[in-house]
Each structure stands twice: as C-alpha cells, then as structure tokens.
Design goal:
globular; disordered N terminus; disordered C terminus; 5 strands
C-alpha cells in the first residue's frame, strides 16, 4: 500500500549509507550488493531474513529506477538508514524522472503479465513505502523494512513456510 511519507530521525550516530550509481542494470546490482554489505556491517548476516528483505527491496527499487526513472546522463542514488529505535531499515532510491511515479494499484495485466509484481513484493516486505518529489528534479521512492521480518509478515496475515538462506553475490 502506498502511504504517506515519513522521515527517519537524523540523529547523530544513526547508521546511514548513501551512494550514487550509474543508471544501468550493473548499477542496480551494485546497489543491492552495497546494501547487503552494509547490513552485514550492521550485524545482519547476508543470509538473515532482514538482509534478504532489504536486498530484495533495494533490488526492486533500483531496477525500477533504471527501467522507469532513467534520464540519460543522470545517475540514481541509494540511501540506507538503520533506525534501531524504530526497529527498521529505511531504503531510499532517488532517480531523475519526475513525471513517472510508482503506481498505487497493481497493473491491469496482473496476475498474467510478465512484469509488475516488484512493488507488490515491496508492499509485503515493508511496513510502509511511498514516493516523494525531489528538488530540483526527480523523485525518491522509499520503503521501511522491519528488522523483525517474520513478525511483520505474520501481522500482515502471511505465515512464512520456508526461509530463503542464500548468499547474495
């Protein structure tokens, strides 16, 4: 569900990482790898539920920035903020395309279409997500991923039946 934006506290010492990437499939892949590396540095192994959830959300938002938000000559940005007090990781992906906003409903081709399911995954994995305009141009799409992924899924009425434990390259 697309919800109103919230802003993480900018308290000193709050673990934050920000990086710009070339708007290409390789850039999206590198953004996902950077997210997994920083999750490990913050104490969440690559195979943990929360790290896998963050990797999936970063991968989807970065891929959308490359496919739908690309403006020639412009990069996309990734920002991760670990907020232990709130129990979440905030993922922000910024691109240069102001006019293209994320849809608020599943695509008309769902469920038969070959694309359009990525934001549905973000919706399931995040407690909140949305977008906001960037000045002077572009937008930021953000998602807040809970540190207790299994608890979040159960409260959403989804009972996890397996755990994906894969090393993300």
């Amino acid at each position: 569900m697309l919800t109103a934006t919230t802003t993480p506290s900018d308290e000193p010492g709050l673990p934050v990482v920000a990086q710009r990437f070339v708007s290409s499939p390789r850039g999206a892949r590198l953004a996902r790898r950077l997210a997994v590396r920083h999750m490990e540095e913050w104490g969440y192994p690559a195979a943990s539920e929360v790290s896998c959830s963050v990797a999936l959300v970063v991968g989807e938002l970065a891929a959308n920035a490359v496919l739908h938000g690309r403006v020639p000559g412009r990069d996309f940005g990734l920002r991760l903020a670990l907020d232990l007090a709130a129990g979440l990781v905030r993922v922000e992906v910024a691109d240069a395309a102001s006019a293209k906003r994320p849809p608020t409903a599943p695509p008309s081709s769902y469920p038969e279409g070959e694309s359009g399911r990525g934001l549905l995954l973000v919706d399931v994995l995040a407690v909140r997500w949305g977008s906001e305009p960037r000045r002077p141009m572009g937008k930021t799409v953000w998602a807040e991923v809970p540190l207790e992924a299994t608890t979040h899924l159960k409260t959403a009425g989804i009972e996890p039946t397996y755990v994906v434990a894969a090393q993300i390259p």
